[in-house]
Design a protein that fits this description.
The protein is mainly alpha-helical and 155 residues long. It has a single domain, classed as Ferritin, core subunit, four-helix bundle (Ferritin, Up-down Bundle), CATH 1.20.1260. The chain contains five helices and no strands.
């Protein structure tokens, strides 16, 4: 059936394009954070292992919320490494960085996702898409707070 939720096709597709980037960024940061959870070493091991687990679990939930919003807007959500590699702004780490490098890298990832979400706000506002705006606000809140907390761990 044709979708009829009060957002025209052009606006819906523009929102979905932005949400697809947000999904790719979120999934990529999820994978990176999970990797760091497994591979962190050093004197802060227990703290960071636990912190990274909390963060990747939150990102896992976010991935589902973003993908389901894309589906509610009538489009298919990207769901492959190949698609995510084309869409994401998050860079992969080479090798296993030190614990402090992991923290700094995750700060950059959290901030990148906050910027990705923020870049979509005007498009969602113009379409009067309050549901997407709510998701974007939630994502910016989480990523900005998480970046702040991670930054607090390094000088």
């Amino acid at each position: 059936m044709k979708i009829n939720i009060g957002i025209n096709d052009v606006q819906r597709k523009a929102i979905v394009e932005g949400l697809s980037v947000l999904l790719a960024d979120t999934y990529t940061l999820y994978l990176k954070t999970h990797n760091y959870h497994w591979n962190v070493t050093g004197p802060m091991f227990q703290t960071l292992h636990t912190l990274f687990e909390t963060q990747y679990m939150e990102l896992s939930t976010a991935v589902d919320d973003i993908a389901e919003r894309i589906r509610a807007l009538g489009e298919f959500a990207p769901g492959s490494y190949k698609a995510y590699a084309k869409l994401t702004s998050i860079k992969e780490a080479d090798g296993i960085p030190s614990a402090e490098e992991m923290i700094r890298d995750l700060v950059n990832g959290q901030e990148a996702i906050a910027k990705t979400a923020r870049s979509l706000v005007k498009t969602a506002e113009d379409a009067e898409d309050e549901v997407t705006l709510d998701i974007l606000t939630q994502r910016m809140t989480v990523h900005e707070k998480t970046a702040w907390m991670l930054r607090s761990l390094v000088a």
